[in-house]
Amino acid sequence: MGLAASAGREIMLTARKSDIEFKVQVINQRRTTLAQHASQLARAYANTMYQTDNTASVATSDALLGVFPTTNPITLDSTDQSAVGTGVYEAEMAEVQALDKELELREKDLQTQSKEAETELEAVRKVIDKSIEKGFKTLG
Predict the structure, then answer these.
(1) Max intra-chain CA distance, the chain
(2) Which residues, 6+ apart, have CB-to-CB distance to 47 below 8 Å?
(3) Quick one: 20 exposed, middle or buried, by C-beta within 10 A (0-12, 13-18, 19+)?
(4) For residue 18, what are the CA distances in angstroms to 1, 23, 27, 52, 99?
(5) Helix, strand, coil % in the chain, rounded to nearest 5
(6) Per residue in 70-113, pLDDT tens?
(7) Rounded distance, CA 88 to CA 38, Å?
């Protein structure tokens, strides 16, 4: 491979690696949002169980709606003991855990792709270094 082709390949691999790293950051942000949602669910559940706050509810935000497009956040208050008794809290937490597990698997896949891109990038850089070294030897 020539120097120009190797340099182009290096640029392409660097861009791919950057894209993968961005996707990992997005997944980490979604996992953080899931953790916040789980915390809100646990707080609402505890408030309901101990009746410390009659208006305990799960807050919604645009970020949560992006992560939970089909799930409506639950509201637990002291008058809604049937929701607690029927396992709404457990169902919501199970959904949060399932989504977190899916995101974790995606993150591991992307990290593997990142390592592959890094290995190929190192190989291309070695080819570029050898090409430059060879070019200077013929000139000097």
Answers:
(1) 87
(2) 53, 56, 76
(3) buried
(4) 24, 9, 14, 47, 25
(5) 80, 0, 20
(6) 444 445 444 455 455 458 889 999 999 999 999 999 999 999 99
(7) 13
Residues 6+ apart with CB under 8 A from 133: none
CA dist., res. 56 & res. 76, Å (int)? 6
Q: What one-character DSSP code corresponds to residue 69?
A: S
- Which residue bears the tokens 């996707």? 23
Q: Which residues contact 33 (CB under 8 A, 6 or more apart)?
A: 63, 64, 67
**Whole-angstrom distance, CA of residue 96 vs CA of residue 76:** 17
Domain ranges for the chain:
3-132
Q: Is the pLDDT reported for residue 28 higher than 90?
A: yes
pLDDT of residue 52: 62
Q: 135 or 128: whose pLDDT is higher? A: 128
